[in-house]
Amino acid sequence: MNDPQETMSRSPLNLVQDLYRAFGAKDEAALRALLHDDVEWIQCPGFPGGAHRTSADEVLEGVLGGLNEEWDGFAVRIDEYLPGEAHVVVLGEYTGRHRGTGRAMGSLFAHVYEVEAGRIRRFRQVADTWPMVAAIRGEAPGLQT
């Protein structure tokens, strides 16, 4: 997957699926190969550690490193992929347990990816951040496990 020619020939859906696998495996080389040189990574306001990132380095540091430090068992469950010509929408849920409070959460999300020149050019997130914030505060809303 690190071969640029191989990445160019993959469908947007396959690229996005590869991105989730690479994040799950914490495979920085694969992530760098999948992210466009001018990547724009937009997390919604209120998302813990969320930001507007504009480089692969920022994405790897802020996204790959950030969530796993604050949450035990942080996971992304994919419910559905909605592929288009150059876009893929992904619906699912974040789950995990906050390390500081021990509270579990389940937060629904929609991710919108734009693919350009065979790589992920833009990521936009829409998420129900309240379950995450409540878990950080030690409050009850969200997944009760």
Task: Describe this structure as you would to a colleague.
It is a single chain. This protein is of the alpha+beta class and 145 residues long. The chain has one domain (4-137): Nuclear Transport Factor 2, Chain: A, CATH 3.10.450. It has five helices and six strands. The chain has helices spanning 4-8, 12-25, 28-34, 56-70, 130-137; strands at residues 35-42, 52-53, 71-83, 87-98, 104-116, 119-127. Strands 2-1-6-5-4-3 form a six-stranded mixed sheet. β5 (104-116) and β6 (119-127) form a beta hairpin. The longest helix has 15 residues, at 56-70.
Give a quick summary of the entry.
The chain has 145 residues and is α+β, with helices and mostly antiparallel strands. It has 5 helices and 6 strands, in the order H-H-H-E-E-H-E-E-E-E-H. The longest helix is centred in the middle third of the chain and has 15 residues, at 56-70.
Low-confidence stretches: none
Helix content: 25-40%
How is the main sheet built? Answer: 6 strands, mixed
Numbering strands along the chain, what is their spatial order in the largest sheet?
A: 2-1-6-5-4-3
Q: What do the pLDDT scores average to?
A: 89
Helix-strand pattern: HHHEEHEEEEH
How many domain units?
1
Q: What's the shape? A: globular
DSSP strand tally: 6
Figure out the total of helices.
Answer: 5
CATH topology (fold) name: Nuclear Transport Factor 2, Chain: A
| CATH class descriptor | Alpha Beta
Task: Provide the β-strand percentage band.
Answer: 35-45%
Oligomer: single chain
What structural category do the secondary elements indicate?
alpha+beta
**Radius of gyration computed on alpha carbons:** 15 Å
Give the N-to-C terminal Cα separation.
37 Å
Could you say what the CATH architecture is? Answer: Roll
